[in-house]
Amino acid sequence: MIFQRLIWASLAVAFAVGLVQTGVQQLQAVPIILAAEVYEDQKIEAPVTEAAPSAHAGHEGHAMAAQAEEAEAWAPADGFERTAWTFAANVLHAFSMALLVFAVMGVALWRGTTLRALPLALVTAAAGWLVFHFWPSIGLHAEIPGMDAARLGSRQGWWILAAVSAAGACAVAAGMRSRLRWVIAAALLALPYVVGAPHITADPLAGFQGEAQAVLRDLGNQFVWATTWISLSFWACMGVAGGLAFQRWVQPALKTAFGSAGKLPQTA
To answer: Any idea what DSSP says for residue 54?
Structure first.
C-alpha cells in the first residue's frame, strides 16, 4: 500500500513539476541556448586539455570524437519535438527527485519531527536545491553551447563529490545532536573546494573572435542566472506539490503502518 501510494504520488508531482519546469525553461534557457548555437559554426577548433597531451589521450580524443559523431546522427527537431522530449526528460527527473524527497520526509517523520507536511517538504526541497544545484554550481557554472571546458569525466566526478558532500552536511546538521555537527557539516561543505573544481587554463571562449566572443560571454552570464532561476523554480514547485501530495496520499499510509510505534506526529 505504501509503495503504490509513493509511486502514484511521485508521478503526480512529477507531471506537475515537469510541466512548470518545461515552461520556465522555454522562457529562460531555450532562447539563450538557441542564440548561442548560432555562433557555433564560427568557432576555431583547437585542442584544449587540462594537462600535457599523451598518446593515450590522443587515442581517447579520437574515440570520443567518433562517439560524438554517432550521437549527433539523431537529434530532436526544433519546435514541438524538442519541447516534447524536454518535457519527458523533466518528468523523469522530477519523478526521481520526488521519490527522494518523499524518502527523506518519511525518515524525518519516523524520527519524530514536529513539522507539518508542507513545511517539511519545503525544507527538504531547499536542501535538494543546495545539494543538486547551488553547491556544485559555485565551482562549475552552467555552460552555453560552444564553450570549452575540462574533461567531462573530471567534471562529473567533482560534481558528484560536491553533491555528496553537501548531502552529507545536510544529514549531519539535521541528524546529529552534538554541537560538533556544525563543524563536521562545514568540513564536508569545504571538501570539494579543497580538492578543487576542474577547469581549463585557457579562456573557455578562446575559439571565438571579435563580436561572437563578446556576445557569447554575455549569453554565458545570462545562462548562469537563467539556470539558477530554473533550479529555484523546480525545487520550489517540488516543495509545494510534494508537500501537498505527501500529506494527501503518503502520510496517511505511513501513519497506518508505523503510527502504533509512536514515531509519527498525529497532526496532518
So the answer is: -
